[in-house]
Amino acid sequence: MRRAERTRFIITFLSPALLLYTVFVIYPLGQSLYISLFNWRGVSKRRSFIWLENFQKVLHDEVFWKSLKNNLWILLIGGFLVMAIGLALAQSLQRRTRGGNFVQNIMLFPQIMSLVVVAVVWQFVLNPSIGLVNSGLALLGLKNLQHAWLGEVTTALPSVIGVYIWCGVGFFALLFSAGLQNIDKELKEASQLDGASGSQQFTRITWPLLWPIRKVATIYTVINGIQVFALVYLMTRGGPDHGTDTLLSYLYFHGFENYQFGYATAIAVLTFLLTTFVSLSILLIYRKSPMESAR
Amino acid sequence: MKLLLGLAALTAMGSCLVGCGDKGSQSNGESGGSEKPLTGDAKELKGNVEVAAFKGGYGIDFYEAAAKEFQTKHPGVTMNVWGNPRIWEQLRPRFVKGDVPDLAFPGWLMDHWALAEEGQLMTLDSALDSMAEDGKTRWRDTFDPRILKLGQLNGKQYVLPYYVMAYGWWYDPGVFAKNGWLPPKSYTELLDLCAKISSKGIAPITFQGQYPYYMVNGMLLPWCYSAGGAQAVKDAQNMEVGAWKSPGMLKAASMIAELNDKGFFQKGAVAMNHTDSQQEFLQGRAAMIPCGTWLYSEMLNVMPKGAKMEFFLPPVVADGAGDPTAMMIGIEPWMVPTDAKNPDAGIAFFKFMTSVENAKKFVEQKGTLMSIKDSEPANLPEVLKKPAEAYKASADLYSNEFRAWYPDFEKELESALTALLNKQLSAQQFCDRVELAAEEKVRKNDSVKKHKVS
Q1: Quick one: pLDDT band at residue B12, thresholds 50, 70, 90?
Q2: Superfamily for A63-294?
């Protein structure tokens, strides 16, 4: 009887969350998979079932692979730098100074700003004619370094990655700050007494103890890197010559501009599978705490 | 989470597909449009009329005011006019569900040909054969037939034009007069002029680099027309084999490459969006810009004091095969959905809006050309005088139709054009790449419905 009561209790408390999850996550996912099997323009109920043809076409689509490559650049370069700079900032902010407090206060600004605002502001900054970057270079007598930052294939993606880092670094600094503050001060003090240098303290104490934060940060970075859309769409619309197209901007093009809804949904499903695969791989890599293995 | 939300957005329309009593055909829907005709002869109009209109540069205030007048004239109807700048996004799921407005102007990103092909639009020929608002003329005869035909598919009228956009180039007559420059008529004159402008430290030409279709419509196609004649552009639109690397197209691409190589395009324009580059032109940092006739109303609020703009046709190739008066135009069409609940009243309202009197008012208020004959008011806005002259004098009006037919091809064309401007492709390589795109994205692609320019 008590067991039955307990089951009922669990079901009662789980069901609202489960229901919401089913309606807003499981059902759309299932339906996306279903739509991706159709040739459907998304303007009427007319469509034809084509099995996996959309997937076959996507996998042979050069722009899809180019977009994926761009995502990986954003993820690897942008993701690595955003975490590295975030951690460095967090570490330097551990000592309370007036400058440090100021940085701490302003570093979250980009994070709380709407991405639309961020994109528009940076479009102005990078404007080839009146932008701060080119004007600054001209002032420094470096006119030969001026570029049409968002219009040239060689500079567009690095520019987008730069803005991506600018946006994200505050959040990661905050995340790592919280992690650093959780590390027992006595450990550091003890290591200092034992004669550990600053870098030894970081590699032997701080880095291993930041493991749970690093795990969260990595998953967050990966998911963010794969899902870049608004920044790209607003700043470059995927151009020049697909130079900044990402999986989601390419998906948007096919779904909402090219009127190939089935095809767009196939891209969405593949992106979902990729995100799931990468996230699970990270969980696998991080499955064992280094502290556990040290014991 | 963003991805899940994205998936949810994509599947929101899918919900309609599977959830709203799916009567959808499992076939690939290759048949033509709806055969449901609209007579437009209803004597007594009544009921609610929903008009969904794209809120672009011309706003929707004119339509709202017209709806009020229409309601006064027909007390039995209740008009509901609404709109926003991305209205197609709201209308698409409604088309899928069958819950549609009675009259729609869904804007430039709605694939109206897909709607027609999938039976979502009423045929409007019988309505066009009914009497116009004045009760004396056949409604069809009140339209410029050259514009009306842009709304036809397989010989049937599915969509109707209202205002007409003309594509050309713009310059500031004040700046030109001060320097003793004249708008160039031929490409040779253009090269000479560009050299003179450059020597004054001004960029001769700027362009909307992030939206390369401005250059497709303002340079590539007009120069292909000029060099290769009307047939060269027609063949390109019809995706005939080899048309995108025809001598006319190659010449047009070479002209763009030459201007680029000579440094006559504003430095950095390839990264500019439409407002950035148009602002550069208005600020006097660039002397000319290709754009449609909406330029004035689009930039009116940010025009510097003293700035002026005047229209001229793209300079032509001397001794080219094309008629030098030919003009590229475009429409943003209106339509009556098949599932409309009150289509007679919807089309009656559009008929009311297309009366010569209302069309004249639209020209006066919005400063655009119209598809309605004799709609030029006595006090034509200054900025519209030159486009109106060119429009009247034009021996041939043509339109970029493949952009709406084959968006995937258009995207590849635009990407290739950007690569040409970034000097990653030569003119020949540009043509080869676009020809390949025509083959792969259109000719060989079975899921794309093929069209022909009539």
Answers
A1: low
A2: MetI-like (1.10.3720.10)
Which residues, 6 or more positions from B64, have their beta carbon under 8 angstroms from its beta carbon?
Answer: B81
DSSP per residue, A184-213:
-HHHHHHHHHTT--HHHHIIIIIHHHTHHH
Q: In whole angstroms, what is the distance from residue B358 CA to residue B167 CA?
A: 24
Alpha helical stretches, state H, chain A: 2-21, 27-35, 53-59, 62-73, 79-92, 98-106, 109-112, 115-125, 132-139, 153-181, 185-193, 198-201, 207-209, 211-226, 230-235, 247-252, 261-285, 290-294
Interface of A with B in 220-249 (CB under 8 A): 223, 226-227, 229, 236-237, 239-242, 248
Q: How confident is the model at residue A111 (pLDDT cuts 50, 70, 90)?
A: confident
Q: Which of B29, B268, B447 sits opposite A129 (nearest CB)?
A: B268
d(CA A122, CA A135): 14
What radius of gyration do chain B's Cα atoms show?
23
B80 strand-pairing partners: B50
pLDDT surpasses 80 at A291: no
Strand partners, B82: B52
Tell me which residue of A54, A260, A24 sits closest to B7, measured CA to CA.
A24
Here the ipTM equals 0.89
> Domain limits of chain A?
63-294
Tell me how far apart the alpha carbons of residues B443 and B434 are, in angstroms, rounded to a whole number: 12
Cα–Cα distance for residue pair B355/B370, rounded to 1 Å: 11
- The predicted model gives A129-142 an average pLDDT of 95
- Nearest-Cα distance to chain B for A8, in Å, is 30
Of A34, A128, A268, the CB nearest to B267: A128
CB-based contact B448:B442 (threshold 8 Å): yes
Q: At what angle do helices B247-261 and B230-237 cross, to 10 degrees?
A: 100
Full set of structural domains in chain B with CATH = 34-162+332-374 (3.40.190.10), 165-329+401-443 (3.40.190.10)
Both tokens of A9, joined, read 């209790």
* Tens digits of residue pLDDT in B275-328: 999 999 999 999 999 999 999 988 988 999 989 999 999 999 999 999 999 999
Average pLDDT over residues B197-205: 97
Neighboring chain A residues of B118 at a CB cutoff of 8 Å: 41, 43-44, 46
pLDDT above 70 for A155: yes
Residue B217 · residue B167 · CB < 8 Å? yes
Q: Are A232 and A160 in contact (CB under 8 A)?
A: yes
Distance CA B182, CA B192 (A): 11
Give the CA count within 13 Å in the CB-facing half-sphere of B373.
Answer: 12
pLDDT in tens, A195-226: 888 888 888 888 889 999 999 999 999 999 99
